[in-house]
Write a structure and sequence with these properties.
By secondary structure, this protein is an alpha/beta fold. It has one domain: NAD(P)-binding Rossmann-like Domain (Rossmann fold), CATH 3.40.50.720. The chain is built from nine helices and twelve strands. The strands form four sheets. A six-stranded parallel β-sheet has the order 2-1-3-4-5-10, sandwiched between helices. Strands 6-9 form a two-stranded parallel sheet. Helix 1 packs across helix 6. The longest helix has 22 residues. Bound molecules: NADPH dihydro-nicotinamide-adenine-dinucleotide phosphate and dtdp-4-keto-L-rhamnose (TDO). Dtdp-4-keto-L-rhamnose binds next to helix 5 and strand 7. The site of NADPH dihydro-nicotinamide-adenine-dinucleotide phosphate has 24 residues, from helix 1 and strand 4.
Amino acid sequence: MLKILVTGGKGQLAQCIEKLSSSYQFELVFRSSSELDITNAKKIEQELSNYNYDYCINCAAYTQVDKAESDAKKADIINHVAVENLAKSCAKSQVKLIHISTDFVFSGDNSIPYLEDDKTLALGVYGQTKLEGESKIIQNLDQFFIIRTSWLYSEFGNNFLKSMLKYGKEREELSVVFDQVGTPTYAMDLAEVILGIIQSQSKDYGVYHYSNEGVASWYDFAFNIFNLAGVNCKLKPIRSKDYPTPAKRPSFSVLDKSKIKSTFQIEIPNWQDSLSKAIQNIN
Ligand SMILES: NC(=O)C1=CN([C@@H]2O[C@H](COP(=O)(O)OP(=O)(O)OC[C@H]3O[C@@H](n4cnc5c(N)ncnc54)[C@H](OP(=O)(O)O)[C@@H]3O)[C@@H](O)[C@H]2O)C=CC1
Ligand SMILES: Cc1cn([C@H]2C[C@H](O)[C@@H](COP(=O)(O)OP(=O)(O)O[C@H]3O[C@@H](C)C(=O)[C@@H](O)[C@H]3O)O2)c(=O)[nH]c1=O
């Protein structure tokens, strides 16, 4: 039976993986941040060398995009330095690493969906530290899958879907930006793809893009959330300049998913269909 370590075991994506785990014949070991701090290089090395894992899914990350701007050191240690150490320990213990990265490694200057080899240029600290984490994996490990994804939401953790449901109940009107375009992704769909890659025991290592199908602005995302959940809150489309945030975000971060679809023979659900499922699961 394949043995898999999941770091960041109490985060959104890790909880989605846990929810699906009974459908797979894997031995999954979830370690929360307090049980296994990925910035503790010695503990990571011990964990990987002592327990004979086949795979590590790194769900641990510093994910607060705005806070990272004033907390750059911490974001760097978790998203970059710790990931480098994790990659080195995986190499030493022959553990395959599945690492999750982000659409925020791109600047947003494209007008067509981003391919894996397109030029990266992060606009903020979060994206930059995630990008450096990616590079360190590529430099230090052969057996890795880096999956860049975007706009994750689910019934677990903190995310845009849950924020909109909360604010929609509390407020009469909400303003949401319509000039940042990407693709919302149901974290359960990503979890399924990750477990599928492990099940296939594929050796097609490398960088992949995965999001749901389709394109939306954050305003479109919020509009569909309110519609599907029956939230009676007026929604106002605004420009990013009218919603100032510490971190600049890409205006276009749609990912091209041709590579992951053809390599692993998967079909990807449309974001609106998946959103509808997530809202049903929340209810
Ligand atoms: N959320 C999104 O919209 C997107 C996320 N991603 C990427 O997907 C991955 C999963 O994200 P998601 O599940 O949403 O994120 P979450 O923020 O829900 O989960 C991250 C987890 O990492 C843990 N963590 C933080 N620091 C450490 C540490 N030093 N050691 C161990 N664990 C730590 C956190 O624990 P604690 O809370 O205790 O600190 C938390 O449980 C991340 O790599 C993220 O960059 C990519 C694109 C979009
Ligand atoms: C809450 C809110 C946000 N917004 C805007 C701010 C921002 O531009 C956009 C998204 O807001 P959030 O801060 O919730 O999402 P953000 O944390 O930027 O989401 C990102 O998280 C990281 C981890 C990723 O990797 C990305 O793929 C992406 O999912 O919506 C509004 O316009 N109105 C609002 O009421």
